[in-house]
Each structure stands twice: as C-alpha cells, then as structure tokens.
Specification:
Structural class: alpha/beta
Largest sheet: 4 strands, parallel
Number of strands: 6
Helix content: 40-55%
Strand content: 15-25%
CATH architecture: 3-Layer(aba) Sandwich
CATH topology: Rossmann fold
Strand order of the largest sheet: 1-2-6-5
Radius of gyration: 15 Å
Number of helices: 6
Distance between the termini: 29 Å
Order of helices and strands: HEHHEEEHEHEH
C-alpha cells in the first residue's frame, strides 16, 4: 500500500508545478515515514501544505493506537525536521486560519489537526494497484494548467 507516502507524493506534485498542493495525511502515515518532513524542509516548496489528521489511530489497518495523541507532538516533530511554518488546530476555524496564513508564506507548512479518535470500518478497495495508479495519473494530467 501507500501508507506513509501521501506527503511524499504531494511533495512531488508541488515540485512539478506551481499550483497550491494540500496533502491530507494521517498521524500514522507521518509516524511511519517521518523522513518525508526532512525532504520537504530541504526542498522548501512554497506551494505545499500538509494537514495531518491526528486521530491517534492507524485507521486503515484496524484502528491500532498511534503515539501521536499521547507522547509525540506532530507539530513539534515537523519543526524538528526543519519546517518553519507549523500550527496545531482543534477546530475547523483554527484549521482555516492556519491554512490561510500558510498559503501566503514562502515555505511549506504543516498543520496538526487534532480530531476525535473515531474511524469508520474501511472495506477492501476493489481496484488493483495499477488501476489506482492509472486513475491518479489521469486525474493529475486532466488538471494541468
């Protein structure tokens, strides 16, 4: 699967074009691949914002608990990896305010969006990895400016 790669894919999209890229990632995904934050900080795409939906669970693999809600602060982790623009949000209003602030900055940002630790059961995805890739590529190519 692609768990741990959403922010890396978003980084590639941000580097390939100038439109604003917003990655909706999970706390578990960032904990699985935290080195992507170092790459984002090193490459400094000004058009990238990562929103970490921090529900304290690995939702797509059975809702196992992560450490993000107990002892790891994702905002501080992002700062430690070198991201200059970070924020923590607990409400939709705080999320919008942080995003509006970051989109005018000269570097990438991360918003740690703390949400309730509730996940809906996720069924099996009825597509092959090749079909998922083809759908993604068609979507990206159809939106080129």
């Amino acid at each position: 699967g692609s768990m741990g790669l959403a922010s890396a894919i978003g980084l590639g999209l941000a580097m390939a074009q100038h439109r604003q890229v917003v990655v909706i990632d999970g706390d578990g995904s960032l904990l699985m691949n935290p080195n992507v934050l170092t790459q984002i900080a090193a490459l400094q795409p000004s058009n990238l914002t990562v929103v970490a939906m921090n529900n304290g669970a690995y939702g797509s693999t059975g809702n196992q608990e992560t450490l993000a809600c107990k002892c790891i602060d994702l905002e501080l982790m992002a700062r430690g990896h070198g991201l200059q623009y970070t924020a923590k949000a607990h409400t939709g209003e705080e999320l919008v305010a942080a995003y509006n602030k970051f989109k005018d900055e000269t570097g990438p940002g991360l918003i740690d969006m703390v949400v309730r630790p509730v996940n809906e059961p996720v069924g099996e995805i009825p597509l092959s990895p090749v079909e998922i890739k083809e759908r993604f590529m068609e979507s990206v190519l159809s939106r080129e400016a």
